[in-house]
Amino acid sequence: MANKAKRLDAIMDILLQNGKVQISDLVQQFHVADMTIRRDFDFLVSQGKILRTHGGAILADSGNKHERVVLEPAYITRITEQASCKQTIANAAYQLIHPNQYIFLDSGTTTLSVAKLIPNDLPCFFITNGVNIAAELLSHPFPNVIMVGGEIDLNTWSSRGTLAEMQVNNFHADIAFLGCNAISPDGNVMIGNVAETGIKHKIMSISNEIYLLADSSKFEAYSLISYAHVRDFDGIITDNGLSETVQDTLKEAGGNIMVCGEENKVNGGYYGNYRN
Fold this sequence. Notes:
The protein is α/β, with parallel strands linked by helices. Helices cover about 35% and strands about 20% of the residues.
């Protein structure tokens, strides 16, 4: 469908019938590029007709007040969301890093906070699929950074796809820090883009230790697709805003929930005991 107006009308018809729609489905239906649909969504958002979700959209007036859905804000906006919690989590994650390690930093705003903590003289080797994370690390005077190439997603500033997965498969990491968009009540770790599940699986498969960085707002929520379960990680590092009830539920599901507080300061050399 080449006519934009007709395509927009068709998208609204689908939303009126189903309440939600995925970008990948519209790409196949209309035989257009992914970015074309994203621009259509941008226009419909500006008209107040839809809300963006991870990988799709819902009607702005869907009236769904019972199911919590994680929406897809712009990357710049996400950097400022839960900023203090992300910084606390990043401080805790940094304490797990040791000299001379091979470290994989997944794309994301919390992993970017970890990258900002790396001192200039830390003798480690970093691998990342985050464009801005690579740029942050390269601002330091050490050259030990590998940027995984591939299809670049502008919403997450990350590389993904078959080419990226092939590259990751050739590496080894002593420790990896991954992110997510949501963690469901039953412990599924979810993201909003099907195309990114492959690279996350590869990162996990080549790493000796795997930690999930997730602030407390991401728990008891859903996104598009699950790429792992809480029990698949050596630890889930979160802030002390996570209720004990949720902690207990996820522990019963096999998750190692590692709650950190503001006392976990890098410069102070103290890393308080996690509440395991």
